[in-house]
Design brief:
By secondary structure, the protein is mainly beta. About 5% of the residues lie in helices and about 55% in strands. The termini are far apart.
């Protein structure tokens, strides 16, 4: 009997963890005239319907289940409409998510099943972003990011697992999932098929980290040539400085013996491609991270 109740508890715990992502297995669709859309997901179908082209479609059989989401970049006239789906509302003008869904957990990874292929050089991607509304600054703070480019190909169903990189120990209040068959310059018939999305694991305890410093300042931001990092440490220690790209990949790292109190470090960013990056400052007991923009 105890084993039975243990099984039931684990079973329902698994269901709850999966169900955190709305329509996670793409079983639920709504018919809108001549086309269908996955419930609680935003696509470009409402924009491309004028040309009888739909870049997000229901396909069968699912893996698992009855259906899966098939997003395909497709030629319309002289341009290619990108295959995009976001968990929430998609802005068809800037091709970005306007909103996501409520979410307050701290998962370790974003997982699911996929197939994908690109026919040009502009790689698609998968991203899950956890955010929290900052009432003081009246904006959203990025709490964690799980992101991966679609390098190579997956011509049959395969599992994927993308670890979250945490930039704050604060619990999030929302999540946006962004799925793209192509990058900024899509090619006709680039595709990404997905099913059975989930968040797995936990980074419980991240809120209990002790800060390694009294304050940290990074400037200028945006930057073009170099970033100055002003620290005021609570104790002398060896600090590691890392620069991460938007996918969480470490592209620069250096260690510095840093004294108690105030100190200044300078990192050259002149060779970085324009865009958004994160600088991570790792101490002996904890870490801090800040977003920077390279222009």
């Amino acid at each position: 009997m105890k084993k039975f109740f243990l099984f039931i508890t684990c079973f329902f715990s698994t269901l709850l963890s999966i169900a955190q992502i709305p329509n996670f297995s793409f079983e639920n669709w709504t018919s809108i005239g001549s086309y269908e859309v996955p419930n609680q997901w935003g696509t470009l179908n409402n924009t491309t319907k004028t040309f009888s082209v739909y870049t997000a479609t229901k396909a069968t059989p699912g893996n698992p289940g009855n259906y899966y989401l098939k997003i395909t970049s497709t030629t319309i006239g002289t341009s290619v409409a990108p295959g995009i789906a976001v968990s929430g509302v998609l802005d068809s003008i800037n091709m970005k998510a306007k909103s996501g869904f409520p979410y307050s957990m701290q998962p370790a990874a974003f997982t699911g099943r996929w197939q994908h292929m690109i026919y040009g050089t502009s790689q698609g991607s998968l991203r899950a972003v956890l955010t929290k509304w900052n009432t003081g600054l009246n904006k959203r703070d990025t709490i964690a990011l799980a992101a991966q480019l679609l390098s190579g190909m997956a011509m049959s169903w395969a599992n994927f697992s993308i670890n979250f990189v945490y930039f704050s120990g604060v619990a999030p209040d929302s999540c946006i999932i962004d799925l793209r068959a192509s990058g900024n310059t899509p090619t006709d018939q680039d595709y990404l098929w997905v099913d059975n999305l989930a968040f797995t694991g936990s980074v419980a305890g991240i809120n209990n980290q002790k800060s390694l410093l009294n304050y940290i300042l990074m400037y200028p931001n945006p930057a073009t040539e170099e970033i100055k990092i002003s620290l005021n440490l609570k104790k002398a220690q060896t600090i590691k400085f890392e620069i991460l790209d938007i996918t969480g990949k470490v592209i620069f790292s250096k260690n510095a013996d840093t004294p108690l109190g105030e100190s200044l470090q300078t990192i050259s960013v002149a060779e970085l491609v324009k865009g958004i990056y994160f600088i991570k400052v790792l101490g002996e007991e904890s870490s801090e991270i800040r977003k920077i923009v390279i222009q």
